[in-house]
Specification:
Keywords: DNA recombination, DNA-binding. This protein is mainly alpha-helical. It has three domains: 7-102, no CATH class; 113-205; 231-393, hpI Integrase, Chain A. Helix content is 52%, strand content 11%. The protein has helices at 62-86, 94-102, 113-129, 135-155, 168-180, 186-205, 231-239, 245-260, 264-269, 302-310, 315-320, 329-343, 351-363, 370-377, 382-411, and strands spanning 7-13, 23-32, 35-46, 50-51, 56-57, 275-277, 283-288, 295-299. Strands 1-2-3 form a three-stranded antiparallel sheet, covered by helices on one side. Strands 6-7-8 form a three-stranded antiparallel sheet. A two-stranded antiparallel sheet has the order 4-5. The radius of gyration is 33 Å and the shape is elongated.
């Protein structure tokens, strides 16, 4: 495999270290792909005797000839070490060449891609401990690292790689791996790639590498339709008689999310102190979102208020100090499928659909301004909320198309031709 990288070595004098007698030390600088190291040759030269072009000392005395021979031999040794290391199908580092030149035990001083992930994830774990970020956010970066390692093992038969060896081709091939080997959707693949690019930018900031080799790779996201419940489906779900208590509780929590917009992870954490009295003297639900840490405050509509009241004296809620009887996520999604079957809802109910339903069916479709919806959802940018606005527009378009079809059929009926 042919490796493309830049390599140079140059002899130079350190004008900042001139002795009183006018002599300066001669240094050897080795540079590979922007990474450099400088080595003292232990030789000194008068500034006016140094020829920067030929990298030699001017003069013809025996001492000068010996010095020049020493310097040229040094350059030849560096070139030989560089050549030998290049035969190992990887890009050598200046520190490796320096260590071999000086006879120092070869201890890698470069950072690897796993070093970068571990550094980032340890810092993030500290943030999780003080509730600054969600454990799910940390988990996404841990999964990203696992996928990068799996890709390297498949592609290069390696479990780690030095950061300075990474090129743009690494990330383009990683994308191909995610799409064809892991068979995940393009949007999901690009979320992993976005995480990887962030890790590399961090490495640049820490001076582990001179630049991010992945900067030219642009992540693109395909707009997808968000699954939501329409008003009829929401009413069927809310009012359907159900005899199984665990499904009643799951239904109540799901409906609560549909009318408040909070994610499952937030509702799972809610205690009674999350309910506050707002400036309008009405009840509000307020918390920092687990996912983003953004403050999210929502006025409580009558339906979620009724659900809170229903479980005020619930034994489980009192014992666990929870606002609602929320199951673990895995069981919750499983019960939602069962609930959908009972209610005759053909859609695949998930915890996310409830939040999407609040943004569309409950608020935007009923004329709540998008700025208000964005604030209640805790979005940092209104652009995030505009995705839901497009869902509402599509629903309006579909409904109007149905109406047009009905009117068209009416106009072509026999009655339309009478007279």
């Amino acid at each position: 495999m042919k490796l493309n990288f830049t390599y140079s070595r140059i002899l130079m004098v350190k004008k900042t270290k001139v002795r009183q007698n006018g002599e300066a030390p001669i240094y050897l600088r080795i540079t590979i792909d922007g990474l450099r190291v400088e080595i003292s040759t232990k030789k000194w030269v008068a500034l006016d005797k140094w020829n920067a072009t030929t990298q030699t000392v001017r003069g013809n005395t025996e001492d000068i000839r010996l010095t020049n021979t020493f310097l040229q031999t040094l350059l030849s040794k560096v070139d030989r070490i560089h050549f030998d290391l290049s035969l190992q199908d990887r890009i050598p580092t200046p520190d490796e060449i320096k260590n071999q030149l000086l006879g120092v035990e070869d201890k890698p001083e470069y950072k690897t891609i796993c070093d970068a992930f571990d550094y980032h994830n340890l810092k993030m774990a500290d943030m999780v401990k003080i509730s600054k970020i969600s454990p799910k956010t940390l988990m996404r970066y841990q999964i990203t690292k696992n996928k990068v390692v799996a890709y390297m093992e498949r592609k290069f038969k390696l479990s780690d790689m030095p950061l300075h060896e990474l090129r743009l081709a690494f990330i383009t091939e990683f994308e191909h791996h995610l799409l064809t080997v892991d068979r995940i959707q393009s949007n999901t693949a690009h979320k992993y790639i976005k995480n990887l690019k962030k890790i590399m930018n961090m490495a640049v900031g820490l001076d582990w590498i001179p630049s991010n080799p992945f900067n030219l790779f642009k992540c693109s996201y395909v707009s997808t339709d968000r699954e939501i419940l329409n008003q009829d489906e929401l009413e069927v779900l809310r009012l359907k008689p159900i005899s199984v208590q665990r499904l009643v509780e799951v239904r109540d929590v799901f409906v609560f999310c549909c009318y408040t917009g909070f994610a499952y992870s937030d509702v799972y954490q809610f205690q009674h102190d999350a309910v506050i009295v707002g400036l309008d003297k009405e009840y509000w639900l307020s918390t920092n979102r687990q996912k983003t840490g953004t403050r999210e405050s929502v006025p409580l509509l009558p339906i979620p208020l009724q659900i809170i009241e229903k479980y005020k004296n619930d034994e489980y809620c009192i014992k666990s100090n929870k606002l609602l009887p929320v199951n673990s996520n895995q069981r919750y999604n499983s019960y939602l499928k069962e609930l959908a079957d009972i209610c005759g809802i053909k859609k695949h109910l998930t915890t996310h659909i409830a939040r999407h339903t609040f943004a569309t069916t409950v608020t935007l479709a009923n004329g709540v301004p998008i700025e208000t919806v964005s604030s209640m959802l805790g979005h940092k940018s209104i652009r995030t909320t505009q995705v839901y606005a497009k869902v509402v527009e599509k629903k309006v378009s579909d409904d109007m198309k149905t109406l047009r079809d009905k009117l068209s059929l009416a106009n072509t009926s026999p009655l339309s031709k009478i007279g």
